Model the fold of this input.
Amino acid sequence: MADSRILQTKEDAARKAEEKRSQIGIEFFNVNTGESRVASTAEHIAAFFNSSDQGPNAHNKQDFGWRLSPETVVELDEIKENPTIMAQIAATYQIPIDDLVDFNVLKYMADKRFREAARVNAAEGKNYTSEYEQRLAEAREKKSEKVADSTEKADNSGKAK
Done:
């Protein structure tokens, strides 16, 4: 049986490693598997948080081992102790301050990190358009090579008859 795993080039592996290092969001750690993940969307933050010991259903045996990274826990605690920032979060998400929960603070933290990263990229003049266009050209080139190969194979199989 053929090996169905996708083989990565060294360049792909290096790119993925860099992407992992530069991910922006809220970091979670799984105490069951030792795995670390960065949740970068509100939906992923909610999913990981709800699968933790802090989730609303943890008492219903829905704690799947996910925990906020220690640095995130410290930052979360600092923010929750700051009434000015909590009022800002309540105003940002239009939620009464008494109804704010940890998820709202985590979303605020992630949004703040995204804004800071965008500001840094803009200040450094980073524009990822050329990188995207290069990757698009490479993908199109690979597709045209595959089409050419399959056309050549079809032509050769017709000649063999």
User: Anything to note?
Assistant: The helical segments are 10-21, 42-50, 70-80, 83-93, 102-123, 129-159. The CA atoms of residues 91 and 107 lie 14 Å apart. The first strand starts at residue 26 and ends at 30.
